[in-house]
Amino acid sequence: MRWNLRLAAAHRGIWKASELQAKLAEHGLVISAGKMSGWWSGHPASLKLEDLDVLCAVLDCGVEELLIPEPDTVSRSAPECEPPAATGTGMTVTPKRRDGRSLPPV
């Protein structure tokens, strides 16, 4: 996914992070300068869905304008191997206590 906040804000005449931060505060979303910097720079560390709702309301846009999918950048992993079937030989079962505590060493 590509974060597209700056361009979405620019389309609405918001050119500074501090302008957007003030508009978000008017709608009840008070965020720190550090978090706003992360959002504005294009690399948000985290984003709550509630915050995304407020962003969309302030910018009068949809999520699809803020989050641009980039499926070509996803690396494909090798298919996972299935574990070998238990045959009853060579495999030991270790019982576990019901209260979650570990068993004493053998």
How would you sum up this structure, described in words?
This protein has a domain at 2-72: 434 Repressor (Amino-terminal Domain). The protein is elongated. It is mainly alpha-helical and 106 residues long. The termini are far apart. It is built from five helices and two strands, in the order E-H-H-H-H-H-E.
Give a nutshell description of this structure:
The protein has a domain at 2-72: 434 Repressor (Amino-terminal Domain). Helices cover 38% and strands 4% of the residues. It contains five helices and two strands, in the order βαααααβ.
List the helices and strands and how they pair.
Layout: E1 2-3, H1 5-10, H2 17-26, H3 33-41, H4 49-59, H5 63-66, E2 67-68
Order of helices and strands: EHHHHHE
CATH class of the domain at 2-72: Mainly Alpha
Widest sheet, order of strands: 1-2
List low-pLDDT spans. Answer: none
Q: At CATH's second level, what is the architecture of the domain at 2-72?
A: Orthogonal Bundle
Distance between the termini: 50 Å
What proportion of the residues form beta strands (DSSP E)? Answer: under 5%
* Content-based structural category: mainly alpha
* Rg on CA atoms, Å: 24 Å
CATH fold-level topology of the domain at 2-72: 434 Repressor (Amino-terminal Domain)
Task: Count the E strands.
Answer: 2
Query: Biggest sheet, open or closed, and with what strands and sense?
Result: 2 strands, antiparallel
Task: Report the average pLDDT across residues.
Answer: 86
Q: Number of DSSP helices?
A: 5
Shape: elongated
